[in-house]
Structures are given as structure tokens and as C-alpha cells.
């Protein structure tokens, strides 16, 4: 019995009894140091739940306490850990409590060891002796070691509810009520008390199944195999801090630009891991910063060229003032684009206002809200906008007063001085330069939309003032996304729907409703900055970067390629970046990126490619301030419900250790611990938002809802008060002299206009790869978060959407296994044959965890096996992940 308890205590404790296995084999079994080996060690995993600290864990704890047993902390494991069960059985045996022992073995222990033994063959280890002795315990009981009477029963903690909030980069920041007892998560409920509740969607309701999954990372580790093999060895946080500090010292001597922090949003709150490490890098001497995001590069970068800033959105509640709504590439039912957007869309539909959805897929939003779904070919959105503008001019429906007063470039009478000879919107639409009139018939050939539908859409939109184009972000994640964005902004201005209640300026759509806390990174010590999408290129060719080709800003040249990478609380390193096969080739070369530091909760595609892996804490295991996702009159508190599993640490703690190793602890912490930083950020916010309660009340109630907030209407001040826009001219620059100065008129024209896209509707490559592939944000994942959640697998399992016409040509039927492929990679996935997608287009949800088979074919539906990195959008250098040509064929089983 002693040797069995010792086995589950530590390798050192077990060593005197048996020496058949190596320390690394031991770690793979009990510490989870091998991504390819999973051994369940907890009673909570019985019945196939794979959930830690659940109702079964509570039953085990109740059993312990009934018989006076105080479970010990065994390496941070949940208290139903198999080692604790053995100690408890020994305790009962010593007390001669045979009936209790038999009951516990029957209810919990036999199932736990069955799972344990079933998993062991996959480790290829010789543990027959351990198996035999565990079976002996079940069959014969636990041998008596020394009599000791049972201790008095121990009190149980009362069930209580913790008011908290989600902290992922999800479009809806939900309020959650966490039911807890004895450190076990028993229930996750949603907000029901506020006038307009911040209710959880299926993702929020499934947090327990995601974040308490038993496949959690457990301990700090260093890589011992090749990158991508998933083979690691356990180390301490202190050892990891020393290694990180050493590399930081080396790289700062090379150049600040040799250090880079990957774009990551697994924690989207005030205290963000990526911001924390940037602060430390900055204090030490600097790092290579990035601009844009994977989500909104074209929208956020382009909108300021037109309006002067990216805050072109109205508050969510203003949508109730519109007379006509176009959801353009916008799918809030599934993506959750603002915590209250679906609430107000439902109210608008109840009012009887017409809602049109433009999307290649008939999304859930189209089904829920649309009076009309208009299917469109990807990368042709600018052509549709052009044709609508032509119809509006032809029917004299433009708002000429708005054009005359606020805009540059709609016609030759409104061109800036010195640019009169350049093309204007009106002349472009009427083909006075290129000879092509931008009629609905012209656009129909590109978009796949009937000409009559385009004409009716334009007339309805222009006649319904106030009318609103509410764009999503999917359609701008293309190689010509900037032109699509500019086309929608042009329509909003052409019809005078900017700066008015019920209207919509289109563009990025961000708002400026409330002051939000921001963790202080400090002034950047190194001025160089690159587009966020080009980090993988900067590992190999950073020293060749310039402004024209790669969008390098702040400096003329980089002195070093990227050598040190931090990928914290994110899956962008591999899974969410494009062209996975090319990316992993770059990462596998250790002479390029010399050290990759990662943190996460699970073995993802990205964590397998890091050198040092630090396990983080979940939404249940720490405190933070949860910020609104762009929209919303509230501020939330993410409140700790349980202690961190396995002794894991929030990134701030080990980054502080790194700071100490560098002698920068005082500069980094400023004398504050984590909780004091939270309070500091909150108090800074209160200076601007005096309605906020004191911090203790804010934390207790899980947040605060502003009661007297006024709706934000983008550019209302400029329109109503005659104030200038923040553009060089002070006008809305439909024609942009700033873009003329870039001297790339074919890809970046001075006015909004349709530009043909590589791998778009007109690319000759369609002869070889005839189907346009797009991604979509599925309701079962938040980017790549939740993919391991079996509870959500039923909501939207992996599948490729294929129109029946395209399926029939290839002999594909519903549910068939198909191969999706192009020159960049291959994905094997089931077919979803449906009329809810336009012919010639296929769709795959983004975020599936890259899972290659032995031939390198992904079998999980990871779209980025098929997306590109060799080309970006020309202006923003943005993410082109919805611009792909592929072919599909049935897999013969």
C-alpha cells in the first residue's frame, strides 16, 4: 500500500519501491507532459465526463468529510485524485471501517482505476505491477497498517453563488452566476436580473465543460522533443523565469526588434497577459510592436482615411431608430457582436422594420431576423456597393445637401484643390474613364446577385432614411477588404445616413461610449511596428521589411529578424494564423525563432510548438475586470470562484518572477500585487466615470450597469454643429489625397471602387480550383476556444457547407467524407449539403484545432491549412483568410 501511495505522490517517493520506469515516463502519466498521452486520474471522469471539480468530486469530498478525513493537497490535484483516494482507503482500513471502504471502492475507486488502467496501454509503459496491486485493493480490500479510530465528521462548505463574467474575446461579454461548493463548480447560470440582461449564449453556458476539462495543462514545462511533437518535461516556475530572463538579456543585446508578442485574445480583459509581457519588455528596452488585428484590419485601418477615426458605430440601442437595416456580412446570432445586439435586433423585427442580410451563407442571423437573404460571391462586395450607388444616382435619390456640405470626391464639383483631373465617384460609376458603367447587370456577373435584386435593394435603402448599413467583419477579411469597406462608407454618405439617429456610417463601427481601464504598457522604447499578420514573415525576412511592401512603420529598417516570441493565452502561433503548413516549417527551424514562450490551458496546435509552456488559470480561478466588447453601457468583474487547479498561476505571477530575475521587479510592479493593479485600474476609471460604485461593491455584484448613459451616434457632433472631421481636409474624404500619395492606384485607388481579387471571382486559377472558400464564426466556438468541449460539439460539428449543385457535380451527398484542398494543404471533413450557401462557394467554420493525420492531412476542420500568407490586403496589410480557392472531392473509404 505504501508503494502505491508513493507512486501517486512523487517520482522520488516511488523510486525506492520500483525502478522499472523512467522519470519522464512517470511525468507523462501523472503530470501530463506529453500531448499524445492522456491518463485520467480523477473520480470526476467516471461516466465519461472528463470534467474536473464537478458533482462527483463533491460527492467524494462529502464521503471524505463524513468519515473525518481531511484530504491533503497532492500537487494541486482536485481532491478526488486517485492518490487521495488511496490515502482515504488506507485511513478507512486503519479504522477497520470495512463497510465504508467497500462502499467507496464500489462507488468511486473502481471506476477511477478502470479509467487509469484503460489509458496505460497507450503509454507503452510496463506498469503491470501497479495494475495488479490496484486490482488487489478492489478485490481484497486495503491491508491494515496500524489501527486508528475514525475522526469526527468535518463540516461541509455551504453552497454559494459567485457573481462573475466572461473574459474571452467574445462579442458578448456575459454575466455568469457560478454555483460553488467545496471548490466544485456545480452550476453556471446566466444573468436574469438586469432590465436588459447580459445573457450567456451556448458558449457561456458551456464554460464548465470547456475550462474544467480534465485535459488541462497542469505544470510548467520545457520542450524535450522537436517542436510540434508535444513532448515536454516538468520544471518549476522559477526555472522557467530564469530561462526567459536569460533570453531577454541576450535578445536586447541583439536589438529590441528581435522580441515579439503574438496577437492573442484568450484573455480579453483589463489584465491581459500580452500587455503584461509587453510592459516588461518595454521596461527592459523595447520590443517589436504590431498594429491592426486579425479580426478587423481592413475596417479599422481604412475608416480613418474616410472619417478621420475608426469610431464610426452607433450605440446598439440606436438601431431601434432606423427605418431599414442591412446586415452586410454580419451574423450576430452566431458570432455575438455586442452583448445586446441580438436583443435590439429582435425588438426591431417586432417593430416590422425590414431587415436584409447580405452574406454568402444563409446564416442563423438571416434565418432569425431577415425579411430577405441576398447571397453574394466573396470579394465582390465593392461591386455591389458600386452598382447600388449607380442606381441611387440614376434615380436621383442621393442626399445632395450632405454631399455638398460634408464630402470630398463624389463628383467633379467636390474634388480637392489640385486633384480636379483625378477620377471621382460619379464619373467612375458612369464609366467615363474605363468605359464600364457600373450597372446592376455589370455587378450581377461578379456578385451572383440578380440585377433586379440589386436595383430594388438600392432604391429601398436610399428611400428609407434613416437607414442603416450594419457591417460585420467577415467580408473585409479578404485581399480587397479595404475597397469593400470604403464602398459601404460611400453608400452611407451618398444617402446622408451619417451622424443621425437610426443611420449608420458603416466602416469599422467602433464606438466611444465609456472610459475603459487599460493596463499601462508604458511609452514604447522602440518605435518600429509591423502589421500583426506579418510576424511569421518577420521571423525569416524581417530585415528586408519596408513601408511600401510590408507596412513597416516607425523605423526605416529592422536590424534583426524575430528571435524571441511570446504566445500568451492564445492560439495564433499556429492555429489562427494562415497557411499552417508553411508556418510550422518556419517554427520548426530553431535557428530562426530561437525561443518561443507559451501559456494556455490546454494542448492546442500552438502549445505544441513552444519551448517553454506555462499553464494558465481559467475564468473560474482568478479575478479580473471584464471590458465591454466595443459596445455596451456596463463594466463587469470576473470573480474568482475556486482556487487554481494544479497550483497554476495567472501570467502576471510568473512574469513578475522574470522581472525579478532581470532586476526590474520594482519598475514592473510599482509596488502593487495583482489585486492592487485591479483596484488601481478601476479607480483610474472612476475618475472618468463617477457613477461607478466603490470597488468592493463592484466586485461583489459582478459589475455595474450605467443607468443614465446616452446613445453614441458617430459623427453627430460634426454634422449637427458643423465641426470638422479629423481628416486632413476636415471633410469626409470619399476621395483621399492620402491614398493618392501611396502611388499604388491599381490596388489602392483614390476613390472606393471594385478591384478584382487574387483567388476571387475573376481569378483564372478557378479553372483548377473552382470553389471559393470562406470561413465563418460558429456559434459553438469563440475563435478557437471551446473546440475541445464535447457538450458544444453537437451544436455545430465540423463540416464543409456545399451547395447541392456543386455537390452533385462531384458525386457528394450529405455526410460524405470529403477532401478540401489547394496548393497549401488538405482538410478531410464531412460534407454539409445545403441550399443555405450560394453555388460556387463553400464554407468552413474557423477555429477548429489543427489535427493532422500521419500524412499531414487535417482531420478537424482547421481552415487555416488552406489560407494564404504570401499576400495581404494592399493598404492595411490585413488578414486575407476569406480569400481562398479550393477544390473538393469525395473520399472513398
Task: Kindly describe this structure.
The chain is of the alpha/beta class and 893 residues long. The chain is 32% helix and 13% strand. It has 32 helices and 26 strands. The strands form 7 sheets. A 6-stranded mixed β-sheet has the order 5-4-16-15-14-6. A hairpin with a 2-residue loop joins strand 23 (817-822) and strand 24. Helix 19 (440-447) packs across helix 20 (451-463). The longest helix is centred in the first third of the chain and has 22 residues, at 98-119. It is elongated, with a radius of gyration of 29 Å. The mean pLDDT is 95.
Keywords for this structure?
32 helices; 13% strand; 893 residues; six-stranded mixed sheet; 26 strands; alpha/beta; six-stranded mixed beta barrel; elongated
**Range of helix content:** 25-40%
Quantity of strands, as a count: 26
Mean pLDDT: 95
Q: What's the number of helices?
A: 32
Spatial strand order of the main sheet: 5-4-16-15-14-6
Q: Which structural category do the helix and sheet elements fall into?
A: alpha/beta
Q: Profile the largest sheet.
A: 6 strands, mixed
Percentage of residues in strands: 5-15%
Looking at the structure, what is the overall shape?
elongated
Radius of gyration: 29 Å
Q: Report the oligomer.
A: single chain
N-end to C-end Cα span: 50 Å
Amino acid at each position: 500500500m505504501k508503494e502505491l501511495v508513493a507512486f501517486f505522490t512523487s517520482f522520488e517517493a516511488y523510486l525506492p519501491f520500483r525502478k522499472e520506469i523512467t522519470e519522464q515516463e512517470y511525468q507523462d502519466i501523472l503530470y501530463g507532459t506529453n500531448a499524445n498521452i492522456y491518463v485520467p486520474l480523477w473520480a470526476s471522469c467516471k461516466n465519461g465526463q472528463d470534467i474536473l471539480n464537478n458533482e462527483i468530486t463533491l460527492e467524494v469530498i462529502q464521503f471524505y468529510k463524513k468519515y473525518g478525513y481531511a484530504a491533503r493537497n497532492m500537487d494541486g490535484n482536485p481532491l478526488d485524485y486517485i492518490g487521495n483516494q488511496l490515502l482515504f482507503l488506507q485511513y478507512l482500513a486503519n479504522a477497520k471501517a470495512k463497510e465504508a471502504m467497500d462502499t467507496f471502492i464500489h462507488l468511486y475507486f473502481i471506476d477511477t482505476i478502470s479509467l487509469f488502467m484503460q489509458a496505460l496501454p497507450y503509454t507503452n509503459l510496463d506498469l503491470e505491477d501497479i495494475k495488479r496491486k490496484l486490482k488487489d485493493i478492489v478485490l481484497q480490500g486495503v491491508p491494515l497498517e496500524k489501527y486508528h479510530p475514525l475522526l469526527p465528521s468535518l463540516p461541509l462548505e455551504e453552497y454559494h453563488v459567485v457573481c462573475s463574467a466572461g473574459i474571452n474575446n467574445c462579442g458578448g461579454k456575459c454575466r455568469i452566476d457560478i454555483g460553488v461548493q467545496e471548490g466544485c463548480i456545480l452550476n453556471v447560470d446566466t444573468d436574469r436580473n438586469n432590465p436588459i440582461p447580459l445573457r450567456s449564449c451556448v458558449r457561456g453556458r458551456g464554460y464548465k465543460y470547456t475550462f474544467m476539462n480534465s485535459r488541462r495543462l497542469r505544470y510548467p514545462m520545457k520542450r524535450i522533443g522537436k517542436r510540434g511533437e508535444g513532448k515536454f518535461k516538468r520544471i518549476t516556475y522559477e526555472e522557467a523565469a530564469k530561462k526567459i530572463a536569460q533570453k531577454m538579456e541576450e535578445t536586447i543585446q541583439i536589438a529590441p526588434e528581435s522580441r515579439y508578442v503574438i496577437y492573442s485574445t484568450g484573455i480579453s480583459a483589463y489584465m491581459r497577459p500580452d500587455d503584461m509581457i509587453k510592459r516588461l519588455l518595454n521596461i527592459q528596452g523595447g520590443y517589436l510592436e504590431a498594429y491592426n488585428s486579425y479580426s478587423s484590419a481592413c475596417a479599422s485601418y481604412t475608416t480613418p482615411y474616410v472619417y478621420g477615426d475608426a469610431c464610426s458605430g452607433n450605440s446598439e440601442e440606436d438601431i431601434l431608430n432606423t427605418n431599414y437595416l442591412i446586415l452586410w456580412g454580419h451574423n450576430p446570432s452566431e458570432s455575438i457582436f455586442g452583448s445586446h445586439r441580438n436583443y435590439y435586433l429582435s425588438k426591431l423585427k417586432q417593430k416590422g422594420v425590414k431587415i436584409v442580410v447580405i452574406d454568402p451563407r444563409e446564416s442563423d442571423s438571416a434565418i432569425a431576423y431577415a425579411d430577405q437573404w441576398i447571397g453574394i460571391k466573396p470579394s465582390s462586395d465593392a461591386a455591389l456597393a458600386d452598382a447600388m450607388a449607380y442606381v441611387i444616382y440614376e434615380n436621383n435619390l442621393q442626399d445632395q445637401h450632405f454631399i455638398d456640405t460634408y464630402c470630398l470626391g463624389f463628383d467633379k464639383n467636390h474634388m480637392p484643390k489640385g486633384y480636379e483631373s483625378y477620377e471621382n465617384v460619379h464619373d467612375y460609376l458612369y464609366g467615363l474613364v474605363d468605359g464600364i458603367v457600373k450597372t446592376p447587370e455589370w455587378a450581377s456577373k461578379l456578385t451572383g446577385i440578380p440585377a433586379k435584386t440589386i436595383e430594388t435593394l438600392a432604391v429601398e435603402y436610399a428611400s428609407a432614411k434613416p437607414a442603416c448599413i450594419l457591417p460585420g467583419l467577415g467580408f473585409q477579411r479578404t485581399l480587397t477588404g479595404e475597397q469593400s469597406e470604403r464602398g459601404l462608407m460611400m453608400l452611407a454618405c451618398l444617402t446622408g445616413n451619417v451622424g443621425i439617429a437610426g443611420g449608420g456610417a458603416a466602416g469599422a463601427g467602433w464606438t466611444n461610449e465609456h472610459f475603459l481601464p487599460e493596463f499601462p504598457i508604458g511609452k514604447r522604447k522602440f518605435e518600429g511596428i509591423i502589421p500583426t499578420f506579418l510576424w511569421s514573415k518577420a521571423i525569416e525576412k524581417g530585415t528586408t521589411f519596408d513601408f511600401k511592401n510590408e507596412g513597416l512603420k516607425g523605423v526605416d529598417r529592422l536590424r534583426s529578424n524575430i528571435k524571441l516570441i511570446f504566445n500568451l493565452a492564445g492560439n495564433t502561433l499556429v492555429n489562427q494564423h494562415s497557411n499552417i503548413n508553411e508556418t510550422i516549417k518556419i517554427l520548426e527551424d530553431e535557428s530562426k525563432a530561437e525561443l518561443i514562450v507559451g501559456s494556455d490551458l490546454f494542448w492546442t496546435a500552438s502549445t505544441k510548438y513552444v519551448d517553454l509552456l506555462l499553464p494558465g488559470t481559467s475564468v473560474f480561478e482568478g479575478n479580473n475586470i471584464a471590458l465591454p466588447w466595443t459596445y455596451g453601457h456596463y463594466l463587469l468583474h470576473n470573480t474568482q470562484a475556486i482556487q487554481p487547479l494544479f497550483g497554476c498561476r495567472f501570467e502576471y505571477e510568473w512574469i513578475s518572477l522574470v522581472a525579478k530575475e532581470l532586476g526590474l521587479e520594482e519598475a514592473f510592479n510599482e509596488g502593487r500585487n495583482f489585486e492592487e493593479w485591479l483596484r488601481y485600474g478601476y479607480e483610474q476609471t472612476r475618475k472618468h466615470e463617477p457613477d461607478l460604485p466603490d470597488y468592493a461593491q463592484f466586485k461583489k455584484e459582478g459589475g455595474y450597469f450605467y443607468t443614465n448613459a446616452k446613445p453614441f451616434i458617430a459623427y453627430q457632433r460634426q454634422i449637427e454643429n458643423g465641426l470638422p472631421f479629423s481628416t486632413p481636409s476636415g471633410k469626409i474624404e470619399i476621395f483621399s489625397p492620402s491614398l493618392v500619395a501611396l502611388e499604388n492606384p491599381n490596388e489602392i485607388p483614390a476613390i472606393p471602387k471594385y478591384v478584382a481579387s487574387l483567388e476571387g471571382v475573376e481569378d483564372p486559377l478557378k479553372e483548377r480550383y473552382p470553389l471559393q472558400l470562406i470561413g465563418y464564426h460558429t456559434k459553438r466556438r469563440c475563435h478557437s476556444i471551446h473546440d475541445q468541449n464535447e457538450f458544444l460539439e453537437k451544436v455545430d460539428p465540423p463540416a464543409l457547407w456545399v451547395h447541392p449543385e456543386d455537390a452533385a457535380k462531384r458525386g457528394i451527398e450529405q455526410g460524405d467524407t470529403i477532401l478540401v484542398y489547394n496548393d497549401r494543404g488538405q482538410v478531410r471533413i464531412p460534407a454539409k449539403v445545403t441550399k443555405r450557401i450560394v453555388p460556387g462557394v463553400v464554407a468552413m467554420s474557423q477555429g477548429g484545432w489543427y489535427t493532422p493525420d500521419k500524412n499531414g492531412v487535417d482531420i478537424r476542420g482547421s481552415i487555416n491549412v488552406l489560407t494564404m500568407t504570401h499576400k495581404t490586403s494592399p493598404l492595411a496589410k490585413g488578414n486575407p483568410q476569406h480569400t481562398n480557392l479550393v477544390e473538393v472531392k469525395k473520399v472513398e473509404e
